[in-house]
Amino acid sequence: MKYDIKITKTTEPKNKPQDESKLGFGKVFTDHMFIMDYNDEQGWHDGRIVPFGPMPIHPASTVLHYGAEIFEGMKAYRTVDNEICLFRPMDNIRRLNDSAERLCLPLLDEEGCLDILKTIVEIEKDWVPKAEGTSLYLRPYMFGNDPHLGVHAVHNATFVVICSPVGAYYAEGINPVKIAIESTDVRAVKGGTGYAKCGGNYAASLRAGQKAELAGYTQVLWLDGVHRKYIEEVGSMNVMFKVDGKIITPELTGSVLPGVTRRSCIALLKEWGYEVEERLFSVQELFEAAKNGKLEEAWGTGTAAVVSPIGQLFYEGEAYTVSNNLIGEVTQKLYDNLTGIQWGKIKDEHNWIVKVCNG
Ligand code: COI
To answer: Ligand 1 centre from 70 Cα, in Å?
Structure first.
């Protein structure tokens, strides 16, 4: 089912970034955005693409008081053949609906949502950057928008898509990042919202993230909220380790985000013949492996982070260097293959790529 989309083009197009090597992440926005409203009577209605800019919001809106917000992160790529493509968009759309279900927000028709994404990307296609390592990041998000203060599942919601040309998420680029393992704060617990991509999970992570940054670390690695023992995920990415030839990644226990990049990396690793263990992996087991010289590589996976090597892990006063603080062989192979598929340099044998339009 397609949603009706009314298109109002800007009369004041902005200049596009001149130096794409300086894009960074999420600082520049395109000329347009998509907005659609929901209420119980009309369902999703009034889909519109409008000039990018501030949105009025009722001061009592649910999202401002109770944090009813979910989002996705996905990218449009300009391939070597100058086509504009999305990577596994239905996976993100399904996860958006899973998040909506958890937060009692209204679901979207999945094909309709894909059509929205393709429509805004086609309108903004000249904003999809060309430089190596760049893409147009899409941030679809939905929030509860009831204009009153009772704590209830909402009857009004808003769905928005904004677009931002981006380069690397981390200032380090593809160089290894330093990660601090957090032992005080927790991000999520089973039964909570850990598997959903909701703003609240990220709000809960900010204090530990700030502490880590002040201590010179790029991000936090979270442990499970019950035993404070099992590795879950890093602030903006899932995490994988190569230990004694095998790949270990935390299983999806309910408090870990089911990453689309995680899923894609697992598929590639298995095709290359690696044994991939999705299981509980304790921080003690990790450091045991590090001390015995069996921790060969560590990396994160995520839409924004792509595949990011981890060069140092810090936990309760001790720092462990991984892979001599260099990008490991498997990490590099994953990065090259994943981005190779995304940028059309490597044949897509998985049907992961969805073409939007010619560039
Ligand atoms: C993404 O990888 O797209 C994310 O949403 C992570 C983020 C919070 C920057």
So the answer is: 12
